[in-house]
Every structure is written in structure tokens, then in C-alpha cells.
Amino acid sequence: MRKVLVIQEDIVILKILERLVRLNGFDCKAIRSLDSLTIEDQQINFEFIITDILFEGIAPLQFVAQIQEIIPHKNLLIVTNMGQDKIKQEIFALQDVTGFYAVPIDLDEIEAIIQAY
């Protein structure tokens, strides 16, 4: 079964995204921070990682670079409260970022992307 990793501190957004992913036929691991990631998780090649970029103690670009380095994945979707255009442009300048969505999020758009894969 195709797997998706959701990393989101906001518990409400975490649960909404987890449900959306499961309703679309993916196995989902939903965590609130990278601290909850196991060694086994780091060996899974996730179809999608859907993550926030605002975590205490790490800059958004560093967080994305860390995700890309330590967790095998095919697609990376950013879902965040940070809507600054400068950060969005910098994130998209990185390779392998599939989408960037600022809260409030358009669930239909996110669902369309995961259904396409």
C-alpha cells in the first residue's frame, strides 16, 4: 500500500490531512514533529510527505532540506500558516517540492494532487 507521512504541529490540521489521505486509499503516518519519526520510518519510500515548515528551533528552509535528506519520498507538499511570498519562492526554488499551501487550505486542491498519483 502507498504510504503518506503527515508532519503537522496543529492537531486539527493534522487530523484533517490524515483523514483526507486515508479516504483516498493511502496508508498514513501522522506525527506532530520529526522527533516522533522512527528509524523504520526513515527507510520507507513515502509517496507523499505533507508537512508544515514552522517548527521551533529550525528555519523553514533548513527543515525542508532536512526532510529531503533523511526521509525517502516522491512528492513533498507544504501546508503551513506561513504565507510569506519570499519563503514560498525560496521553498519552490528547492528541488522536489510538489506544492505549497498556506492556511486556510483548499482541501479539494490537495486531494486532486494526491489522487493524480
UniProtKB/TrEMBL annotation:
Phosphoprotein keyword on record: yes
PTM-bearing positions, type 4-aspartylphosphate: D52
Coiled coil: none
InterPro entries: CheY-like_superfamily, Sig_transdc_resp-reg_receiver
Listed transmembrane segments: none
Residues covered by the Response regulatory domain: 3-117
UniProt keyword annotations, A-Z: Phosphoprotein
Top-level division of the source organism's lineage: Bacteria
Protein name: Response regulatory domain-containing protein
